[in-house]
Amino acid sequence: MQLIRCPWCGPREEVEFHYGGQAHVAYPDDPAALTDEQWARYVFFRDNPKGAFAERWSHSAGCRRWFNAVRDTRTYRFLAVYKPGEARPEVAS
Amino acid sequence: MRVDGYGRIDRSRTLGFTFDGRSYTGHPGDTLASALLANGVHRIGSSVTLGRPRGISAAWSEDATGLVQVEEPFPEPMLLATTVELVDGLVARGLGGQGRLAEVADTARYDRMHHHVDTLVVGAGPAGLLAARAAARRGERVALLDDRPEPGGSLTGTERIDGRPSREFVADVVAELATHPEVAHLQRTTAFGRYDDGFVLALQHRTDHLGADAPRTLSRQRVHRIRAGRTVIATGAHERPIVFADNDRPGILLAASARDLLHRYGVLAGREVVVFTGDDAAYAAAVDLADAGAAVTVVEARPQAPAHWAGAAADRGIPVLTGSLVAGTEGAPGDGRVSAAVVTGADGARTVLGCDLLAVSGGWNPTAHLFSHVRGTLAYDPALGAFRPGEDLDGVAVVGAANGTLDLAGCLREGASGERPPSADGEPERTPGAIVWRVEGPHDRQFVDVQRDATVADIARAVGAGMRSAEHVKRYTTIGTAHDQGKTSGVLASAITAELLGVPIEDLGTTTFRPPYTPVAFAALAGRERGQLFDPVRTTALHAWHVGAGAVFEDVGQWKRPRYYPRPGEDMEAAVLRECAAVRDGVGILDGSTLGKIDVQGRDAAVLLDRVYTNMMSNLAVGRVRYGVMCGPDGMVIDDGTVLRLAEDRFTVITTTGGAAKILDWLEEWVQTEWPDLRVHLASVTEQWAVFPVVGPRSRHVISRLFADLDVSNDAFGFMCWRDTELDGVPVRVARISFSGELAYEVNVNAWYAPAVWERLLAAGEKHGITPYGTETMHVLRAEKGYPIIGQDTDGTVTPHDLGMAWAVSKKKSDFIGKRSFSRAENTDPLRKQLVGLLPTDARTKIPEGSQVVEFCPDGALPAPPVPMLGHVTSSYRSAALGRPFALALVKGGRQRVGDVVHVPVGDALVPAEITSSVLVDPEGNRRDG
Question: Which NCBIfam families does the UniProt record give (chain A) (predicted)?
């Protein structure tokens, strides 16, 4: 079981966290202006890279705050954590 | 047999035990295995598929054969006789490879403990003891774990360290560790799994060795959950068997195990001993067994015996047959114990050596399991003929024999971690061993995994079937999948597979070790989380009243909710019909306290609710209530409920009981990740508010009687309004919300006052026959009105339009979650499944929920299979108001088909049912205002 570093609480047990899928998928500014395909891409399509992946996590059994993390999908290792609204940090995987 | 002058057992006390129905004695400090061998019992059981006699093959947890079922003091299957500590009154029997779970409840306690340490040391042998001492001296917080009853690892007591007997060295280090308050030293504790970031799980046996004297206050086993900054793996090595024909008989033991039995328990496992080895360490066994009175012959695979040991053997008259191999064995009639070793000499000649103990050493396999659990790679070491840790891992050190360091001096040096290592006095230098994995012979009698009855022939079949990787061969042959997880067979399986494939073993590699290192009972993993502590139970403030009223409860998530309140002689159907009639004809009362309630506050509270509900909430007036539906971005309904506007900047959002936590999370997610600019705060108030719907045409009388200052007229207090009042100074909020179509008042009060207010409502309603009702009646009443239950009548593929709730979807709002999906072509398909009513035309059959809806061809026959499914039944009840059963169903294009007759398979029959509107009772809504 990994330790995950919550940006607010520090390192905590993995079981305290909840996974929230790909990060930086913003709700469209004007959904009505999108084609069905563009909207479907927002609703259903997510990346699935091998390597560094920016994800949303929630410290659901702790401070209940959401944050973002860059994780290496090959090793599960967290490479960086950062708060919502912050830019994705440059990290080597 | 037991020999005098050896062993650390307490011979002043005698313990009685029973094995396979016969009585024996042993001593404190014995294991079941050592006591059996002391009593001359060598056959423990038989093998799992071939039924061959099996005995004790090793002295500790690496034993592959000595499986027993313990019956008393505590029934448990599939234990190794070598790891069961002897207690008075122990009753056990040998197994044929399979045990039997106890049929009585396990009344022992199991628990867990958490540790956070700087350094965790696994293994209290010479290397581990020194590593722990060095860390303790640095002032670190340390945990030292060891799986045996006493520390010292493989030290027999014959060694000398720093000029003193090795047991004194062990005692000194242990005593020093005890002076450090931040050192936790646990024996009988097996680190069984290592995970990410220095996390290790260990199982401690706390009471089994105490037998009947074990205090009931102590947990029997404890799982230690250890988070370590640094982990020192000092787990030693397992001696490796050699594969030859009939190598599975009782009386064939690993050489160091035979020596361990002598020094630890004073047990001489045979009088006529053949030692078969290509490794120096077995000579120590040969010499010690000879000194204890055995007649010993050494069969040495190497062309020459190491000089030191050749001299020691000569001194004792031990013949050493160099360049020789044991190719097979013979067994005694009866218990099948080995009676002779068939030896192939250097000149190729066959000799049969009579023996009752064949002690084998093929070298050593580092116990690298914990290193491998988190994918530390193992590398083949040709000097060992085995795999050892092959990379540096952050936060991990592997020392001593686990690292492939087999001499005591080397173990002491690696354990000392930079401190001056103690000296290993008089230790002869190790000479290179001969790597012998297998001696040529008949494949089908050469056992690789003795516990699985898997032979070289099985590996040959796997290779012949095209297996080329160690992992595939393992799964094809089952080698390494038994109780011992291949502790002694893993390297042999790799080596023999490589031999048969004609590839180097380093290219083939070995299988990955996975937790647990030794078997762990589910009871230990469950810990205290059993029975009533398995999952929290949530009860409302009225639970005691419900129990007293004889309620039958149902589980709704973690909540206990009254399902119905049967009167004497009533079954559920009768009780629910009575409760339903009471509500529609008079007045009923429900404990609705489990409904989710979220306090939404802030300047932008209305903006948030407009974005998450399909309908408009910002234009809701203070003092009013509105029903709303929430959807996901895909347009599918996720929850529904009512919203009370308390102030311009404050709402109470009511969710379904099951959706309470989910919807709070949902709102938090959007607020935190998409709309952090919104000034809004969310808090669950589910537990703070008790809610009692008072429902039925006579509910107005009850409310006006109890809350005298409340004007309950329709004009002053209309449908979907809320009003604050008080009862004896206690604030009460009353809302005109109806989940039944009847005139209804939902009474909200601080949960602290719930029992008192409930009693007052019952008293006020007494002369009107107020009837408490449960969730089943609630469900019937709402279904009669076509009100869906989200998650019962919906399944994540249902839109508000499918439910006939287009009226609840705003056309004015430019956007809300789900809106864009409603205009997708799929969501405007007229053949989408829609919620409708179904009335079985026989007016008698209650259709089971989940039933499929099918349709006959125009000729009145079922279509040919596969029969098209039109939809399914989502809710089905008997209705007191209708006087017949009815159902709700999701049916393709259902709303355009009202009046059609479809069929529902019930058992072997096809029940005709008419499609109706989903609203079956009071479709005009006349009853709402009483």
Answer: soxD
Over residues B829-852, the mean pLDDT reads: 96
| pTM of the model as a whole | 0.91
| Sign of the C-alpha dihedral computed for residues A19, A21, A25 and A30 taken in this order | negative
Mutate to test the interface with A, among B112, B672, B677, B817 (most CBs of A within 10 A): B672
Domain ranges in chain A are: 3-82
Nearest-by-Cβ selection for A84 from B196, B673, B824 = B673
Question: What's the burial of B607, exposed, middle or buried (CB within 10 Å: 0-12/13-18/19+)?
Answer: middle
Bridge partners, B644 (sequence order)? B625, B652
Which of the four pLDDT bands, split at 50, 70 and 90, describes residue B84? very high
- Judge: A84–B814 Cβ closer than 8 Å, yes or no: no
Which residue has 């340390």 as its token pair? B142
pLDDT score recorded for residue A93: 62
Give the H/E segment covering residue B381. strand B378-381
User: B74 pLDDT band (50/70/90 cuts)?
Assistant: confident
Residue type, B622: V
Structure tokens at B291: 């000194």
At the topology level, CATH places domain A3-82 in Folate-binding fold (3.30.2270)
3-state SS, residue B796: coil
Residue A56: closest C-alpha in chain B:
B673
What phi, psi does B463 have (nearest 5°)?
-65, -40
pLDDT for the residue B483: 87
* pLDDT tens, position by position, B611-634: 999 999 999 999 999 999 999 999
Domains of chain B, start order:
15-103+241-361 (3.50.50.60), 105-238+363-428 (3.50.50.60), 543-593+689-781 (3.30.1360.120), 596-684 (3.30.70.1400), 829-930 (2.40.30.110)
According to DSSP, the β-strands at B588-589 and B771-772 are parallel
